[in-house]
Structure formats: structure tokens, C-alpha cells
Specification:
The protein is 63% helix and 5% strand. By secondary structure, it is mostly helical. A four-stranded mixed beta sheet has the order 2-1-3-4, with helices on both faces. Helix 3 links the parallel strand 1 and strand 2.
């Protein structure tokens, strides 16, 4: 009855998390897409116009990561400095400049090496001591992450290595043909060793959660722990208004009265989670946001059961705050601030996979971190509730310890 009469509390428990899920998902969607590092606009100035230049363009263009714009083609008079300026102005994230005669330089270096290695087989040894070198320049937008730069450089080096391998193979094949008279038009097999990349979870192609997959569980956890304000407020209200004293005169054990509050607010936390999951499934896609994927009805049960333990931890913490605080003002301020801090270090505001090592270690002390990790296991790794026993044990212990501290503190105050 107290909950139904508390309109502000109801708004805090339901309207606030719904608003946060929708607003934060809309705000963070572009950021999460940037983290996926797809469709990066790049320009290529190909002054080589031979095998190396064409191979780099084809390799980058075939990747889903880039949108390639080729410049310096026939009739295009753009210069390297103009390409650099386009990156500086933010129109492109990267410019790649392939110098003239890059392919020719590689071929000359290979030819020189063959003449050095095979003089005894009729190949005239070269006396040329020239060092062949060709440098491909890459200009990056400063906002691009260092890890992404390394990924791009690695991709380009891989493409160049494949081209050099084929050129070396062709050169040696031609040399051997001159010696043996046997013709070989085959290319070197580059796919002898392949790498297969597979993600373990609901989405085979996915490495990071989408904005929906992060925000729905994140703000569900945040909303559940914000139960601290109405529940601790009720406990203090009963103490200050004498209601608690009258309740203690009834033939019902006090722990039963407290257990009823805990079970009721835990039930509310389950309702919150179901409501926010439904919003992720049906409402967010209408706003052109990624849909929250639910595998089957059993996953719903996993969510409900795991949410129950999150609710226990949240209500246990609320009881602790309500016991320690002297008035509702203290409980509201300390309870809300502590939840915000625990949310910040626990990966609610900022996902833990983009935190530094210190914050990543610090996040392990937050019950909100245990909660969102459990939800990640359900939504992303397709695990059932039985496999979440580490998080469930932590949340249960947090609940029990909170109640024990509350009981000890209350007993000392009475004495």
C-alpha cells in the first residue's frame, strides 16, 4: 500500500529506468558503432598504378571495415597535400599514399637478390649495390584509436606481404624456367594456413555488445539498486513515526516483517527487468536501434531467476542504508550517491571493456559489476543461470553480509 501511494517512488522505480534505457541507447548508439570500427572512410592516392597499388586498393575495398575512395586516377589531379588536408578537415579518417614505381622497386630488389643467390646456375651476378626502398605513407585522423591504427597497419602489411610473395615466386619461376626449360604459370598458394575467427555467444559475428545489449541490462541493474531510496525511506519513516514500535508489539517476528519488505521489493526488481527487456525487444527497434535478442523462453526464465538474486543484493543494501541513516534525507543522499559511484566503477556508465587496467580491477568490488557481467553471460554468451553461480554466490553473500551488519548496528543502537 505504501508503494502504491508513493507516486514519486513509483516513477523512480519504473519511469526513470525506462527513460534512461531509451535516452542512453540513443546517445551511445553511434559510439558503439564506432567501437565496432566499421565503414571507416579512407582515401587512397595510388601513384604506383601497378600490382602493389591495385592489390592494396582491392584488399581494403573488399573489407567491411572501410569505404574506399581512390584518388589520383585518370583525370583526377588531386595532390598528396590535398588528400592530407581532407583528413585534417575530418572528411576522411585516413589517407594512404602509394609512391610511384613501388611495384617496380620490389621487382628490382627481387631480381638483384636472385642474381646474388644463383650465380652458379648461369644467372649473371649483379654488381649493383643499390638499396631498393619504397615507403607508403599513411595519414590518420587524430581521433582514431591507437588499436585501430595498428589493425590498419597490420592489414596493409599483410596485403603487401602477399604481393611480395607472389612477385618473388614469379621471379624465381622465370629464373628456373631459363635453367630447366620447364614452364610454371601457377601462383604461389597463399591459403595453405588459414585462420578461422569464431565468437562464442548468441551472435557468431559479434565481438562487442551493441548499444541495446549494453544499456538494457546496465540500466536494469541501475534501476534495481535504486530501490535503495524508497525502501530505506520506508524503513526510516517507520522508525521516526513510531510504526516500527507498533509493529514490534504484534505477535509476528520482526524478521518476518523485514522479510516481507525484501520479498516485495525483490519482486519489483523482477518486474523492472521484464519491462526493460520488453522495451529492448519491441520499442527500441522502432527508433532504429538494435533489437535485444532473446533466444527462447528458457532465457526469459534465466533472466528472471538471476534478477531475483540482484534484487536480493539491492534490498539487502537498502536495509543497511535504512538502518544506518538517521533520517530520510541522509538515506536519499547517501543511498543515491553510493549507487551512482558503484555504477560508475561497475561498468554501468562506461562499459568495462574500454576501461583502463586500474578501473577494471576496481570494478570487481562493485555488486553492479557482478550483476551486469551475469547479464552479459545470458545475452551474449548464451549461458544459463546455472553457469552464473560465481555471480549468484557473490550477490547472495553481499545480501547476507548487509543484513548481518544491519542487525548488529540495530542491536548496538538499542543497547
Amino acid at each position: 500500500m505504501l508503494i502504491l501511494r508513493d507516486r514519486v517512488g513509483l516513477a523512480l522505480l519504473f519511469i526513470m529506468p525506462i527513460s534512461l534505457v531509451i535516452i542512453m541507447t540513443l546517445l551511445q548508439d553511434s559510439t558503439f558503432k564506432a567501437l565496432e570500427e566499421e565503414n571507416i572512410k579512407i582515401i587512397i592516392v595510388d601513384n604506383d598504378r601497378d600490382i602493389v597499388g591495385k592489390s592494396i586498393i582491392a584488399g581494403l575495398d573488399s573489407s567491411n571495415m572501410f569505404t574506399v575512395k581512390q584518388l589520383n586516377a585518370i583525370g583526377d589531379t588531386i595532390t598528396v597535400e590535398q588528400a592530407r588536408q581532407l583528413v585534417s578537415d575530418g572528411e576522411y579518417k585516413m589517407a594512404l599514399v602509394i609512391p610511384k614505381k613501388t611495384t617496380r622497386t620490389i621487382k628490382q630488389a627481387i631480381s638483384k637478390e636472385i642474381k646474388v643467390q644463383m650465380p652458379s646456375l648461369g644467372v649473371k651476378r649483379s654488381k649493383n649495390n643499390k638499396k631498393y626502398n619504397s615507403q607508403i605513407n599513411i595519414f590518420f585522423d587524430p581521433v582514431i584509436k591507437a588499436s585501430f591504427k595498428k589493425a590498419i597497419l597490420g592489414s596493409i602489411r599483410e596485403i603487401i606481404a602477399k604481393v611480395q610473395t607472389q612477385l618473388v615466386f614469379k621471379s624465381y619461376t622465370k629464373t628456373i624456367k631459363k635453367i630447366t626449360g620447364r614452364k610454371n604459370d601457377n601462383l604461389f598458394p597463399l591459403d595453405i594456413v588459414s585462420v578461422s575467427e569464431k565468437s562464442i555467444g548468441t551472435f557468431a559475428e559479434q565481438k562487442l555488445p551493441t548499444s541495446t545489449q549494453h544499456n538494457v541490462p546496465a540500466w536494469t541493474v541501475f534501476a534495481i539498486f535504486f530501490i535503495v531510496i524508497p525502501l530505506s525511506g520506508q524503513i526510516i519513516f517507520e522508525k521516526t513515526e513510531g510504526t516500527l514500535f507498533r509493529l514490534k508489539t504484534t505477535p509476528v517476528p520482526y524478521y518476518m516483517l523485514m522479510l516481507s519488505k525484501i520479498l516485495l521489493f525483490t519482486l519489483i526488481s523482477v518486474i523492472q527487468s521484464i519491462l526493460l527487456v520488453l522495451i529492448g525487444i519491441y520499442i527500441l527497434p522502432l527508433m532504429d536501434m538494435p533489437q535485444l535478442f532473446i533466444k527462447d523462453i528458457y532465457q526469459i526464465f534465466d533472466i528472471i531467476i538471476f534478477t531475483f538474486f540482484i534484487g536480493l543484493a539491492a534490498t539487502g543494501y537498502s536495509v543497511l542504508i535504512g538502518t544506518i541513516a538517521n533520517n530520510q534525507h541522509q538515506a536519499a543522499i547517501f543511498g543515491s550517491l553510493s549507487v551512482v559511484i558503484l555504477a560508475a566503477i561497475g561498468g554501468i556508465w562506461v562499459p568495462i571493456y574500454i576501461m583502463n587496467s586500474f578501473m577494471l580491477a576496481l570494478s570487481n568490488i562493485s555488486p553492479l559489476n557482478w550483476s551486469i557481467n551475469g547479464f552479459y553471460d545470458i545475452f551474449l554468451r548464451n549461458q544459463n543461470v546455472l553457469s552464473l553461480y560465481p555471480e549468484i554466490i557473490k550477490l547472495t553473500l553481499f545480501f547476507v553480509v548487509s543484513l548481518i551488519i544491519s542487525a548488529i548496528y540495530e542491536k548496538r543502537k538499542i543497547v
